[in-house]
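2024-03-11 09:14:02 DEBUG pipeline.ingest accepted 1 chain
2024-03-11 09:14:02 DEBUG pipeline.ingest length=515
2024-03-11 09:14:03 DEBUG pipeline.predict start
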Amino acid sequence: MKKITFLTFLLASTIMFGQSLPIDFQDGTTVPQFQFGNLGFGNIVNPDQSGINTSTQVLEINKPDAADWFGGIGFETPGSPLINLANGTAFTMKVWAPIANQSIRFQIQNGLNGEPTYNRDVTIASAGVWTEVTFDFSTQPGLTGMEQYPILVIQPNYDIGCEGNPSCTTVGTGNGGIWYIDDIVQVGAPEPTCMDGVQNGMETGVDCGGPDCPTCPPSCDDGILNNGETEIDCGGPNCDPCAAADPTSGPVNNGSTGTDFYIYSGLSGNPNQSDFAGFNLVDFNGSLTISEPVLAGDTVIRVDNLDFFGSGLGGNFDATGTYSFVHLNYYATTSTAFNFSLVDDSLSGTVCCGNPEEPFYRFGSAAAVAGGSADAELVTGQWVSVFIPLSHYANFPALVSGTWDGTDIKQTLVTGNGTVYLDNIFFSTTDTLGTDEFETNEFSVFPNPTTNDWTVRGTQTIDSIEVFDILGKRVVSIAPNTQETVIDASALKTGLYFAKVSSAAGSQTIKLVKK
């Protein structure tokens, strides 16, 4: 699911209380804990006590024409399981729809152990009559049946075709209406067969493999090394490329040739990796996992199971008053697409939270770039340096309902999938890195920042190193004549320094930070 649901319900949550499945509304007080997308709800007397539902109380959801197309309601039990899949991986619910052939989405979110969000969509064929529908997660790849989820989201009149479509905004004239739901029950999944179109039972593929079904043909998703693969289910002429290995070191750290302001980088020299005193790495997030591994002395951000997360700057920042670009280094392993944005406070009041107009710089496939749905091709398996013009956000083609002016940036926002590492996120006045040698990675320094000393490693013999303070005074000079050496920083004051490292191939200037 897009970040649309997560962000909005964080803003629209009401008072929480304990709850578990099954959920009915007979007590007259049970209601969802939050709504998003400008709809309404209430526990009311059942207006149609007939057919399969003669309950006296039901939940009413009013999703009018003016509501956001993605609007919905949610139940949650923060920190404890509302849904335990050990009790069953399928769910039934009684639904009364105002218009025939509209869909309803049932979504389990934010697993207690970091499991991803999953959803199921069912089309309600008949209007004005109670219908019981089933949402079956038994075939969901990756589920073990032991996961626990604290959040259940229900989105009536959910149009899958609007996902990623900037022309979709509201439900639309004549498409809104009042829905009723009742009796949300968790049940066991149907008995598996070799003809049900899903992988279940002891099958190794969909309706094939195992002791009971016909042998599966080679494929790229059967967990077996076949079909010309170089690794299980990846590589070779028929399958997607295999995931890149994780990096063992961070990017070579360097700022631009102009003036920089660091959002997240060791170059800031601050304990929080930022020039923003109030920087918060995780202001909001989905069901991903964020860590800060130290790679060869460099602290970076690692995001697993990326869906979305935002970092707070501690207040509004006027970026465009001084700066023209935002820079980041990324290293993608399993990610096939991710997006980077700067959240403009004034714009976010009307365009945010998954709205298709929300301006992003998008990394994706070559085909996505050619088709206009991505701005740069995503490179995997290596650190990539990117300068994004701030004008890109101001001129984002889909943005028509507001203005991104960059004068009140309050957060960064990253969305996408898979695993991505990030570092050296900063505003800059130029789009050129400090030295040409930076990109050759001839020298590396770690740890940086340091409290005691820096280790300098080169691909060739290091002839000399000169360290200068910010006033240009030389404070250290050594001639190691080795490929690896140590700069003693114990006598240096806390602050920023510049090291000129020279070899037979040339020289490189590297920023050093003493903590």
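2024-03-11 09:14:41 DEBUG pipeline.report The CA atoms of residues 206 and 468 lie 65 Å apart.
2024-03-11 09:14:41 DEBUG pipeline.predict end
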